[in-house]
Design goal:
The protein has 250 residues and is of the alpha/beta class. It folds into 2 domains: 2-109, Cobalt-precorrin-4 Transmethylase, domain 1; 120-240, Rossmann fold. It is built from 11 helices and 10 strands. The strands form 3 sheets. It has a 4-stranded parallel beta sheet with strand order 2-1-3-4, sandwiched between helices. The chain is globular, with a radius of gyration of 20 Å.
Length: 250
């Protein structure tokens, strides 16, 4: 009997050691992306907004301490750090030393494929991952429809498909140009497709879809080259400007 108790206790200790973050999954109040990859930054901020959390991201090593000056110290901060390209190693230690309520860290190989596993979503938007423009274009609509945006290519589409096959999917939208392998693999889900072979026409179409659900009177104008927190919140659709004119969704 005593040996059995010791064995159960040993297994419990092992379990706790292996899953510390999972057990504390809802204790954090603020997310920070610590990665040089725009894909990780985008995925972390999207995840935070779908979870209803405040978030931010590092843009350099020197930005680490400066970013903390603008965050309330009552927050418990979770850092989503790139395994291969973080700006700062052991950033939670710096956060704790600045007097914050708490901090922890998740080391991520690929935030876009990993963070979605912690969300209860059944709508998905697929964009190519070569440029950030399509991802930014669909973000307000993704927030509006509670959709996860997969950054897809011919190398990761099988992993994405494996995840989707286990979900009770409501809707899949393929937006803009994607690899042929991506379209072929996802065709069995009968996705909606927006691809006019023109990024501005695609942008206007996604803005129209947003306005159909929420007839707002204004849009955010952007050149689409940078991740902007205002766009990522999804409060208003984003309309991208060309060099010569502004596209209008009418």
């Amino acid at each position: 009997m005593e040996a059995c108790k010791k064995r159960v206790l040993f297994l419990l200790v092992i379990f706790l050691a292996l899953t510390p973050l999972a057990l504390a999954a809802d204790t954090y109040t603020y997310l920070v992306s610590n990665s040089e990859s725009w894909k990780d930054v985008y995925s972390t901020i999207l995840y935070a907004n779908l979870k209803g959390l405040e978030s931010d991201f590092l843009v350099s090593t020197n930005h680490g301490p400066l970013l903390l000056n603008n965050i309330n110290k009552n927050n418990v901060i979770r850092v989503i750090a790139s395994k291969t390209n973080p700006y700062i190693f052991n950033y939670p230690d710096m956060i704790k030393s600045r007097g914050f309520k708490g901090a922890d860290e998740i080391i991520s190989d690929n935030a876009n494929l990993e963070l979605v596993k912690d969300l209860d979503v059944n709508n998905f938007i697929i964009v190519g991952d070569s440029y950030g423009f399509p991802a930014m274009a669909v973000t307000p609509y993704a927030i509006q429809t509670k959709s996860w945006v997969f950054l897809a290519n011919k190398r990761n589409i099988l992993e994405i498909d494996s995840f989707l096959s286990g979900k009770n999917i409501n809707k899949i939208l393929i937006y803009g140009f994607v690899d042929r392998e991506v379209r072929d693999t996802l065709s069995k889900y009968r996705p909606e497709i927006i691809d006019n072979q023109d990024k501005f026409k695609d942008n206007v179409e996604i803005v129209k879809k947003y306005i159909e659900n929420n007839p707002v009177k204004q849009v955010v104008l952007s050149n689409g080259e940078f991740i902007e927190k205002e766009i990522m919140r999804g409060v208003e659709p984003v309309l991208f400007t060309g060099r010569e004119n502004v596209q209008h969704p009418s």
